[in-house]
Design goal:
Number of helices: 8
Radius of gyration: 16 Å
Order of helices and strands: HHHHHHHH
Helix content: 55-70%
Oligomer: single chain
Distance between the termini: 29 Å
Strand content: under 5%
Length: about 120
C-alpha cells in the first residue's frame, strides 16, 4: 500500500529545516507530514545524502535490491537503515534475503550475519 507522492518543494523545505537544526518530529509537525516519512529523510540527511530532496519516484531495481541485501548481510546495519539508504521498502530487504540467490560465499559464514538470516540461507 503506497502513500501519496510528496512535492519536491515540500522535501526541499524539510531539507532547509534540517539544515537549520530542526528535528524530524518538529519538521513533520511544521509540514504536516507523517513522522515516519520525515524520519526516513532525516536519517538520509544525517548520513550526508540529500538526493531525496530532489529525487523522483522510481521502481526498485533488482540490482539495487541485491546491493541492499549484500550490505545487510555483510554489515552490522539493520534492515530499516539499509532500506532508507537504498530508497526501498523495508520488507523488500527481508524479501531479498529469502528470495535472491547469494552472490558471495560470505552469506553463510560472515560473523556479522544475523542468526535468523543464516537460518533462512541454510533453508534454501
Amino acid at each position: 500500500m503506497g502513500g501519496k507522492r510528496i512535492a519536491k518543494e515540500i522535501k526541499q523545505k524539510a531539507l532547509e529545516l534540517f539544515q537549520q537544526g530542526f528535528s524530524y518530529k518538529a519538521t513533520s509537525s511544521q509540514l504536516s507530514l507523517k513522522q515516519s516519512t520525515v524520519n526516513n529523510w532525516y536519517l538520509l540527511f544525517r548520513s550526508g545524502d540529500t538526493s531525496w530532496a530532489t529525487a523522483k519516484y522510481r521502481k526498485t531495481n533488482i540490482g539495487v535490491l541485491q546491493r541492499a541485501v549484500d550490505e545487510y548481510l555483510n554489515t552490522g546495519q539493520g534492515y530499516k537503515t539499509i532500506a532508507v539508504k537504498y530508497g526501498i521498502k523495508r520488507n523488500f530487504v527481508n524479501y531479498g534475503v529469502v528470495q535472491l540467490p547469494p552472490r558471495s560465499k560470505f552469506y553463510a559464514v560472515s560473523p556479522r550475519t544475523k542468526a535468523k538470516d543464516k537460518k533462512r540461507i541454510a533453508i534454501r
